[in-house]
# Entry
Amino acid sequence: MRADPLPVPKLRLFAEPEDTDARKVRLTVPLLVLGVVLVLSVIAGISLGPTVVSFGDVLRYLGKAITGGSIRADEETGYSIVWHVRTPRVLLAAVVGAGLSVVGVAVQALVRNALADPFVLGISSGASVGATAVVVFGIFTGLGVLALSTAAFLGALVATVMVYYAARSRMGLTPLRLVLTGVALAYAFQAVMSALVFLSPNGQAAQTVLFWLLGSLGAATWESLPLATIAVVVAVVVLLRRSTVLDVLSMGDETAASLGVDTAALRRWLFVLTAVVTGLLVAVSGSIGFVGLVLPHVVRMMVGSGHRQVLAVTPLAGACFMVWVDLLARTLFAPEELPLGVITALIGVPVFLVVMRRRGYAFGGR
Amino acid sequence: MRPLPLSLHEVSVEISGTSLIRELCLDVGAGEVVGLLGPNGSGKSTALRCVYRALRPSSGAVFLDGDDFSERHIRETAQQIAALTQDSRAELDFTVEEVVALGRSPHQRGNLRLTARERELCREALRRLDITHLALRSVLTLSGGERQRVLVARALVQEPAVLVLDEPTNHLDVRHQVELLSFLRGCGLTVLVALHDLNLAAAICHRVAVLRAGELVTCGTPAEVLTPDVVREVFGVEVTAVIHPRTGVPQLLYDVPIEDVTTPEGIFR
# Structure
């Protein structure tokens, strides 16, 4: 077409490898920085709390626990706090933060809506019905501490199946139908949950349920880690391997079809993946809002919208964030614990607004 | 890539009881530019969606180079047919480079890794569409004309044999409309394009097909098809057909009835 003499920028993606001036998309630096920050955050998270354990002691206890060395009798309490209480909790915080943020990216791609979060599909509301049933009726008491998690996960599964079949149409799972179905069923689940709490003979039920709803890692044990960790790692790996397809999907369904993507099949497995991971995370941590909505956007502001970068950086950023949130939750008003959802909203929202305004970020389009 | 012939054979689309197109037959020869004309809701987009496989025909089939592609994987079709769709507004702020690079995705399994040849192809496409200077811009910051050129560049790096465009001149100013359409005429690919502007269609298409209410009314060269009778019957508009004094292509002048013009008090009708 017309050849206007316009300044030509240094190409990035289309530059040849030997072109050393090219402005490459560099992920190494953010990944390294976040990796180091995460390790330091985890150690800080283990070290700080109502009882402060020094960094050195934390490292020593962890070393002993892993290599199986012996400790002095007067170190028993410190060791127990570090290894049995704080380490699983901080690691679970990292896993949940990473998982919720990554699922946030996946759901935003799934329903092609920048305002979506892992809970928009109604899955967490289903989980809360399960959890409420445990609190109110004491079902699954045979499972002990796992009763709440199990019931929550089953609730999530039931909700997933219901949303899936209610939203399905001849055209597959269309984004709008998914969101509308998810939101509508979420209201239904919340109604059921409220009715359960209201009719409950157990006066404590309301508070227990509310606390669980706003998210807490207080019940974290080593047993709650493996399943959630595996789910999150698998989700990250699987999504990273399909990052180009997610890029294509975010261009719109018509465009995706013209670029050879079977959107119906893609949505199906994205839905199943996000539902299972969300269910597992909600089961161990309650519904911690805001993380899955906002962290993907914060990461996009830093590294651009390409899903390869976003999916690589988001889990680390989410993990760091959640470790600090959990730390604040248990130290701000110690020995009382704040629900995590309160902190994520109180810190996250202002930070997000500031970043969004400063960078002139196009929040989900203009 | 070598242009290939495209053929719609008795394609019908019915969605929840409503028939959108009925037994549509249309042949587009290799390297031919065919315009799809018709009023709103006549089924142009539906027909095109069957070609780029966003929609599966209820009956009938689309043939690419004599081959019914409905049983093939959608990615195979995307290696040969590129499309400019109506929903191509992006939500996330991808850069122009990222969007254009996605044109290579049908040709690769797994995640995109551009080879040296593909990078050259992408750079060439940016040059051809004159958008190299926009390469690192976010697509959300582009004007309508710039964005449309980015999408054409993406379609080109797809190295298709057939290019399908759904009203590509929407929201473009006159210059960009003319530039885009003359580019299509000269690109050497098989082109099927839905257009609203009858005169631009007459100027750049080898042949035009006119749809009304889901059925093909007529198909032929612009001179054969775009007669006052057809335009009156299909679009409900009176026109006078003339020949462009310099290019020799048939053009239509709209006979706009102006009645009851009241000037004195500045109040119109």
About this structure: Chain B touches chain A through 61 residues (CB under 8 Å). Residues 92-158 of chain B form one domain. The first helix of chain B runs from residue 44 to 51. Chain B has two domains: 1-80+160-221, 92-158.
